[in-house]
């Protein structure tokens, strides 16, 4: 009888989810620390909310008869209440503010970073789990709050190393588009679904041609993969009218505002939106932010339905090439807007709010590609090697001495029989140096320190045996009680 081989699970990550290694995590930490400093400079303070919320608290998605709508990862708890992984960081903040309303100083400025989850079709650069970094002002309906968010977004991109001219913060107002939709006859509660489809179609103008967007507004569009997106059901005339009002215009913010206003009669809602945009443009210009940094752009609508006024989008204008030499333009790396109705779903009084969200994962990929982030490989820990198996306690004392001085260090925990394997391990760990002490060094009260970075440089340039012997200077002996100082000198050399 033949023995059946045991069935092993296939190691694989779910589609749309990705593992992250130490280099990527270090780059994220560096980037988010920079964002945090800018946000705190503006007076924002941190807050954390859980990754899971009651589904009805998310606002965008409500349970239907069987399960919540598509787009969120949801499950039922033991009380048969629907819970969902958060879709963004804004809806959980609205719930937090409503729950703690009496204890917060209003206007309440806060920031938070974390992963969000979207149950959508994954693809190249499109993940089901990704990180966002948000900042919001709750309790102020003033256009000055919206203007401040835009200025802070600009300052954040510059703090991350993106020069002026390589980015723009685009600003529009949902009231402008809402007014246009009223004017073409799709206002009212009965057309809420149509308006949402229109907004999501217009939100594709930065990716699709006007002809493709017209298809999304009317009969629908099939992409290259054959997937069909249902259209909003407008007539060709209605679609043409909307597209004519949301085109991008050249010129100063003043010129753009004049073009948006036009010469014909505008609805009260569209006029209100244009007036708010005019005030934002005035404030940012007065603070020294020209339209090369913050620009009025009627094509920006943002896809989420809870926005009620000004909307913002941070776009990178940098063009580079991917690993195959193909041109890449990064486009939007963040966005936000005013959502005056979201907190008020939980409160009897109106609670205005505005905010901005940076797509950390997307912006990090852009910064890495243009060399602004993660260019240097992160140094690993100092590795204390094992020369004599019966002296593990001595080697561990060295590790603790280094750690006590604030130096990353570790003891080699593999099989110490082959010393070459210990050196290979240190190389893989990107250790700046290793500590070696055999019986002879112990008898003299010394340790050997091998500078792996200097050694690698010397080895790359070696052409003869004599040069190899001279390169041994990368390894040197110091008294055992000078271990910490000597390692510090090596680290300082390579910091």
TrEMBL record:
Statement: the UniProt record of this protein carries the keyword Ligase: yes
Domain called Aminoacyl-transfer RNA synthetases class-II family profile: residue spans: 29-381
Record: residues binding L-histidine: 88-90, 118, 132, 136, 302, 306-307
BP terms from Gene Ontology: histidyl-tRNA aminoacylation
Quaternary structure and partners: Homodimer.
Record keywords, A-Z: Aminoacyl-tRNA synthetase, ATP-binding, Cytoplasm, Ligase, Nucleotide-binding, Protein biosynthesis
This enzyme's EC code(s): 6.1.1.21
Gene behind this protein: hisS_2
Cellular location(s): Cytoplasm
Coiled-coil ranges from the UniProt annotation: none
Keyword ATP-binding set for record: yes
Family: Belongs to the class-II aminoacyl-tRNA synthetase family.
SUPFAM superfamilies: Class II aaRS ABD-related (SSF52954), Class II aaRS and biotin synthetases (SSF55681)
Source organism superkingdom: Bacteria
Name of the molecule in the record: Histidine--tRNA ligase
Location (main, coarse): cytoplasm
The species this protein was found in: Variibacter gotjawalensis
GO molecular function, one term: histidine-tRNA ligase activity
InterPro entries per the UniProt record, alphabetical: aa-tRNA-synth_II (IPR006195), aa-tRNA-synth_II/BPL/LPL (IPR045864), Anticodon-bd (IPR004154), Anticodon-bd_dom_sf (IPR036621), His-tRNA-ligase (IPR015807), HisRS-like_core (IPR041715), HisRS/HisZ (IPR004516), HisRS_anticodon (IPR033656)
Catalytic activity as recorded in UniProt: tRNA(His) + L-histidine + ATP = L-histidyl-tRNA(His) + AMP + diphosphate + H(+)
Gene Ontology CC terms: cytoplasm
Pfam family, one: HGTP_anticodon
């Amino acid at each position: 009888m033949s023995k059946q081989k045991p069935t092993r699970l296939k190691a694989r990550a779910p589609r749309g989810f990705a593992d992250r290694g130490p280099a990527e995590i270090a780059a994220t930490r560096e980037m988010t620390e920079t964002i945090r400093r800018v946000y705190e400079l503006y007076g924002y303070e941190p807050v954390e909310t859980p990754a899971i919320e009651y589904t009805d608290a998310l606002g965008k998605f409500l349970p239907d008869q069987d399960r919540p709508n598509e787009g969120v990862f949801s499950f039922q708890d033991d009380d048969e209440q629907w819970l969902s992984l958060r879709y963004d960081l804004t809806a959980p903040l609205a719930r937090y503010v409503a729950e703690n309303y009496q204890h917060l100083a209003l206007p309440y400025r806060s920031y938070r970073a974390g992963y969000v989850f979207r149950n959508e079709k994954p693809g190249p650069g499109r993940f089901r789990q990704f990180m966002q970094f948000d900042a919001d002002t709750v309790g102020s309906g003033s256009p000055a709050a919206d203007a401040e968010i835009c200025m802070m977004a600009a300052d954040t991109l510059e703090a991350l190393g993106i020069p002026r001219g390589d980015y723009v913060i685009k600003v529009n107002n949902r009231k402008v588009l809402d007014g246009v939709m009223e004017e073409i006859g799709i206002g009212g509660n009965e057309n809420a679904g149509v308006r949402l489809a229109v907004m999501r179609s217009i939100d594709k103008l930065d990716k699709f041609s006007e002809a493709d967007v017209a298809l999304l507004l009317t009969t629908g569009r099939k992409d290259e993969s054959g997937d069909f997106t249902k259209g909003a059901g407008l007539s060709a005339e209605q679609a043409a009218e909307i597209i004519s009002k949301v085109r991008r215009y050249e010129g100063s913010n003043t010129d753009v505002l004049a073009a948006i206003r036009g010469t014909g009669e505008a609805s009260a809602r569209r006029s209100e939106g244009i007036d708010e945009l005019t005030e934002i443009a005035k404030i940012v210009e007065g603070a020294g932010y020209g339209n090369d940094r913050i620009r009025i752009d009627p094509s920006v609508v943002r896809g989420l339905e809870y926005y009620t006024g000004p909307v913002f989008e941070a776009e990178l204008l940098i063009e580079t090439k991917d690993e195959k030499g193909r041109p890449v333009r990064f486009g939007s790396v963040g966005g936000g807007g005013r959502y005056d109705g979201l907190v008020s779903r939980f409160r009897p009084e109106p609670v205005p709010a505005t905010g901005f969200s940076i797509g950390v994962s997307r912006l990090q990929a852009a910064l890495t590609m243009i060399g602004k982030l993660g260019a240097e490989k992160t140094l690993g820990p100092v590795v204390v090697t094992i020369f004599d198996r019966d002296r593990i306690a001595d080697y561990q004392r060295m590790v603790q001495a280094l750690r006590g001085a604030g130096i990353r260090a570790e003891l080699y925990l593999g099989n110490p029989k082959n010393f070459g394997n210990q050196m290979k391990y240190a190389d893989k760990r990107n250790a700046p140096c290793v500590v070696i002490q055999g019986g002879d060094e112990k008898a003299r009260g010394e340790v050997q320190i091998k500078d792996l970075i200097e050694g690698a440089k010397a080895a790359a340039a070696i052409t003869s045996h004599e040069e190899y012997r001279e390169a041994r200077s990368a390894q040197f002996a110091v008294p055992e009680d000078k271990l910490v100082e000597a390692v510090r000198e090596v680290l300082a050399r390579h910091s």
